[in-house]
């Protein structure tokens, strides 16, 4: 296991990042209740989510890679259930990539309607279903991963915090684009300028 914590450390990092994502995704989901009025908040939180999601994909990708390349600890732990591994996980990853790529494209293009919006909405529906199933099946492991004492916990917490800080930086940098998008959605330009 060593100082890195091995597979236990990887599970803990994944659990920490998943917890951060659950909170941020709940905030993002709340903006959907009034998307026209909260579009700039939706875009801000969406951009904030990009680095933590990249970290979550990296930590789960690391586990998968270590398992398939026969890393002893990871093989001993065994793979996730075959349906989760072969069906749910690929759909979660693909729909996450499409959802966030289309969201970034909409922000960059300043669009609030059209094909990319439709693709963003469709990918959300797929993502929500697959991710809900993923979360429900992984919740017991999440709690176990958070409670486990593993060498390097402080480093993993720092890495997760760094991802959130990086996300805040990205979100702040793209705030003018989010404001422009909000202006397009509300049909009134310059509402916040006096």
Give structural notes:
The structure is a single chain. With 194 residues, the protein is an all-alpha fold. It has one domain (6-186). The protein contains 7 helices and no strands. The radius of gyration is 18 Å and the shape is globular. The mean pLDDT is 91.
Topology:
Blueprint: H1 6-31, H2 39-68, H3 72-77, H4 82-109, H5 115-147, H6 153-173, H7 175-186
Helix pairs in contact: 1-2, 1-5, 1-6, 2-4, 2-6, 2-7, 4-5
What is shown here, in short?
This protein has about 190 residues and is mainly alpha-helical.
Any key phrases for this structure?
single chain; 194 residues; mainly alpha; 7 helices; 0% strand
Low-pLDDT segments: none
Quote the beta fraction. under 5%
Please tell me the total number of domains: 1
The number of distinct β-strands equals 0
Helix-strand string: HHHHHHH
Gyration radius, in Å: 18 Å
Q: Quick one: biggest sheet?
A: none
């Amino acid at each position: 296991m060593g100082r890195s914590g091995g597979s236990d450390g990887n599970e803990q990092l994944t659990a920490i990042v998943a917890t951060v994502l659950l909170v941020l995704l709940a905030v993002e989901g709340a903006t959907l209740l009034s998307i026209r009025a909260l579009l700039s908040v939706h875009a801000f939180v969406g951009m904030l989510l990009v680095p933590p999601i990249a970290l979550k994909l990296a930590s789960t990708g690391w586990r998968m890679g270590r398992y398939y390349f026969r890393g002893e600890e990871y093989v001993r732990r065994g793979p996730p259930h075959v349906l989760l591994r072969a069906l749910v996980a690929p759909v979660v990853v693909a729909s996450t990539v499409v959802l966030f790529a289309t969201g970034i494209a909409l922000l960059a293009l300043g669009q609030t309607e059209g094909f990319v919006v439709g693709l963003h909405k469709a990918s959300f529906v797929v993502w929500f279903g697959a991710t809900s199933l993923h979360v429900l099946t992984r919740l017991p492991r999440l709690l176990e991963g958070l409670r486990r004492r593993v060498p390097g916990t402080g480093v993993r917490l720092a890495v997760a915090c760094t991802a959130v800080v990086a996300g805040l930086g990205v979100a702040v940098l793209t705030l003018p684009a989010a404001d422009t998008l909000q202006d397009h959605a509300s049909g009134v330009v310059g509402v916040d300028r006096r």
